[in-house]
Amino acid sequence: MSDIRVTVWGEFRHEKDSSHESSRVYPDGMHTVIAKNLNAMPGITARTATLDEPEHGLTDQVLAETDVMTWWGHMAHGDVDDRIVEKVVKRVWEGMGIIFLHSAHFSKPFKRLMGTGCDLKWREADEKARMWVVEPGHPIAAGLGNCFELDKEEMYGEHFDIPKPDALVFITWFEGGEVFRSGCCWVRQKGRIFYFQPGHETYPTYYDPTIMKVIGNAVRWTAPRPCADVQYGNFQPLEEIKKK
Amino acid sequence: MSDIRVTVWGEFRHEKDSSHESSRVYPDGMHTVIAKNLNAMPGITARTATLDEPEHGLTDQVLAETDVMTWWGHMAHGDVDDRIVEKVVKRVWEGMGIIFLHSAHFSKPFKRLMGTGCDLKWREADEKARMWVVEPGHPIAAGLGNCFELDKEEMYGEHFDIPKPDALVFITWFEGGEVFRSGCCWVRQKGRIFYFQPGHETYPTYYDPTIMKVIGNAVRWTAPRPCADVQYGNFQPLEEIKKK
Amino acid sequence: MSDIRVTVWGEFRHEKDSSHESSRVYPDGMHTVIAKNLNAMPGITARTATLDEPEHGLTDQVLAETDVMTWWGHMAHGDVDDRIVEKVVKRVWEGMGIIFLHSAHFSKPFKRLMGTGCDLKWREADEKARMWVVEPGHPIAAGLGNCFELDKEEMYGEHFDIPKPDALVFITWFEGGEVFRSGCCWVRQKGRIFYFQPGHETYPTYYDPTIMKVIGNAVRWTAPRPCADVQYGNFQPLEEIKKK
Amino acid sequence: MSDIRVTVWGEFRHEKDSSHESSRVYPDGMHTVIAKNLNAMPGITARTATLDEPEHGLTDQVLAETDVMTWWGHMAHGDVDDRIVEKVVKRVWEGMGIIFLHSAHFSKPFKRLMGTGCDLKWREADEKARMWVVEPGHPIAAGLGNCFELDKEEMYGEHFDIPKPDALVFITWFEGGEVFRSGCCWVRQKGRIFYFQPGHETYPTYYDPTIMKVIGNAVRWTAPRPCADVQYGNFQPLEEIKKK
Q: What's B15's DSSP letter?
């Protein structure tokens, strides 16, 4: 079996701003850290693409060669070209997996795929986040314990304005008193979608082995697999029926 | 309790074309038949709006005064102004009910709310359609038997490219050999959405009392009701917690 | 419209034990407090039934006259007669609503209806519990804010071993670091089921107006309503089809 | 990776009755045909067990060595020992996959796992059954077309009294006018459950390559896989929190 080909998409704006804390945490960008960690996993080959590359690094060829995309964006959602968004969404429907990380809840492709406002509560206050497993048999939870923690994360709180997840894998407890559906799965036509809450740009979240284990599990779960044929449009009665 | 205020939206193009069969079945438009039938139901007051009116008949005031909208469109989905679509979608998120009828599966607001391609198989062949109740306890099925029928309907067949319904109320059997999830419910934030398959423009579907009973039930089920408050954005810890 | 007839079922053992704290909090039993509060709500008439009455107070007549049952049990789940359990379960399938409170997660009728082990984590440590609304449009959340609190509750933590809820209305944050799906809905045939976590026997939970508001909302949501007819067994082709 | 170990459980009563048509279709029992076909698939090793063996062939050792069980029963559901049923159900919760075939909808372990009545409509009339794929991306639909057919099957019709499936993979169209949710998935704790409608004892259904392809896919989908740890019961606050 050949490797799962991942394209790690990063907005890569905060990290280039030397006045921003994230430039110290992720001097080469979050995407490079995520990609490096994924490349260390067996069966996964990751490359990167960023907003300021031509076509945001998502040419037709890159899209065609991508099995799973991860998406992180925050300050520049509006700079993403709608035509690229439509191409990404179409690829998801056709079977490409996609993993939305943290503030990508407000990214164009996530909102487009959800059909909801995707809003939530938030607070930057260096709070402990504890993620509890609520579907222990889900492949994305493979190898985890009851829960896992980050010492500091941005708080995201309910209500999270999304369609009911097809599977709810994690719920996060935040030190300051909130909860959040932090690991959510959806199927849209042939494509699988995972939203995963951790990853504020000023914390070293993507250096954390458990966080990366979850993302690796999610890459495997969202990766395309053999499907049934789908045919749409004008459809004549099947012969067996016609003959009757 | 005051009446549920319904706006019956109709594309109203086929019916104005005297060469089209639907001009004989619905000489004043499908929307007038639907609205008349709804107005005969206790607790419901219906008005109409159509594509070729200014702002498609969906001014801010009309939208503000609408509890539930029904939507039928077919040949002119592309003529619906995107700004109106966004207003309709926003109203749904805020709690306005919406019922998509038949070929509205390809309408802009339905596709926008679903986040999927919404495609399906179809065939115009005067086929019997039998709708089976698969969630007998659902309010939209109230008062029905095991199933109900239309002597002739356009066939719509699976795969129907939608998000998994939050409730699947009806599955239709078509004479020519296909099946279709013909009565589907979704909740999106505070709004309730129902898709109902029957209603090809050349058949007298909306004169059928059982079809209208279902639509009436759906008006009642999708109507806005008291909700919890929702707050989004930057959120400070609640005082009780702060004090600790 | 006539009142919703509620039977508040209570195990009523802890409260009769004068050495037990709950005998001070609920000297006449939790069930009497719940019933009194429900009786103060318009459109609801509540009576009580307890374990140590003949047939646990759930005679065929009582069951036939019950629209919605609430169930609280803890130390004596095993003393509930399996024949009564089967009668209760059958009534739920036929349309009787049922609300399981707190430790009723391990009651016989809940386990029977869920088909799972229904286990969870727990801790008695006087911890604050904050219940967040995650489906603000659900009728059980009507009139609530973003969240509501109890100053002290028993901690119940994930993983909660239940089938995926048809609707997840509340998630609770516990002071000690856990989360719990504390308001869960299921539909089983014509019957509606709600599980609600608060209600440890040593805390005055059922005197709390918001808790009772939720239970009142749940009574209204689980109450029987008109359904479609359901027919099972050997089934001949419908005449319309036969004739072809 | 070692083979998935399947135990094909068959009631094996009809087939031993020489006056019954199934004794001609399946002279050595349905279970032997299913097991033989599964053994021809790469990565699967199947054995059989039947009702009239000691402990129905399901000793503790057999259960411990079973990754996935398939279950067919019909006339003798009541002869299955409740203690064996409980052991099977417990194994499912722990992660053993289980596939219920045809009339096993009324088997003890299926009813126990569902918590519903599991009733349906039926008719033996040599009718064509056409199974449509409604979740084309589901692994159980891998490699199929839009639909597949059986020339003759027993009709099973809605309403099928089950909990809403976590995934609905197939809906069957029956020649005589009915529809049926014929391929349904549920997750219960760590275990995966699939119900598949085809397989009346007087038709050669389990010789059909497409039917067996679906069952093979279902074996792979229900097979146990790495999970998160689950801990239940009295739970002390995690140290990290305690220290605060």
A: G
A237 to B176: CB separation less than 8 angstroms, yes or no? yes
- Segment B25-75, tens digit of pLDDT: 999 999 999 999 999 999 999 999 999 999 999 999 999 999 999 999 999
Q: For B4-118+182-242, which CATH superfamily applies? A: Class I glutamine amidotransferase (GATase) domain (3.40.50.880)
Measured CA to CA, the distance from residue C14 to residue C178 in angstroms comes to 26
Using an 8 Å CB-CB cutoff, list chain D residues near B164: 135, 167-168
* pLDDT at residue D31 tops 80: yes
Q: Which stretches of chain B drop beneath a pLDDT of 50?
A: 241-244
Query: Token pair of A175, please?
Result: 């030190």
In DSSP terms, A195 is beta-bridged to: A100, A184
Contacting residues of C for D232, CB less than 8 Å apart: 119-121, 159, 161
Domain boundaries, chain A: 4-115+183-227
Structure tokens given for B181 = 């999830």
Answer yes or no: is the ipTM higher than 0.85.
yes
User: At the fourth CATH level, which superfamily is domain C4-118+181-229?
Assistant: Class I glutamine amidotransferase (GATase) domain (3.40.50.880)
CB–CB contacts below 8 A, B to D:
56
* Nearest-angstrom CA–CA distance, D4 and C159: 27
Partner B contacted by A125 (CB < 8 A): yes
Half-sphere exposure (Cβ direction) of A233: Cα atoms closer than 13 Å = 1
State pTM to two decimals: 0.97
Q: Which long-range contacts (CB under 8 A, 24 or more apart) does C177-181 make?
A: C177/A130, C177/A173, C177/D237, C177/D238, C177/D241, C178/A132, C178/A173, C178/C121, C178/C123, C178/D235, C179/A132, C179/A171, C179/A172, C179/A173, C179/A179, C180/C120, C180/C155, C180/C156, C181/A134, C181/A171
Contact assignment for A173 to C168 by CB distance below 8 Å: no
Residue pLDDT, tens place only, C202-223? 999 999 999 999 999 999 999 9
In contact, B30 and B201? CB cutoff 8 Å: yes
pLDDT above 70 coverage of chain A, percent: 98
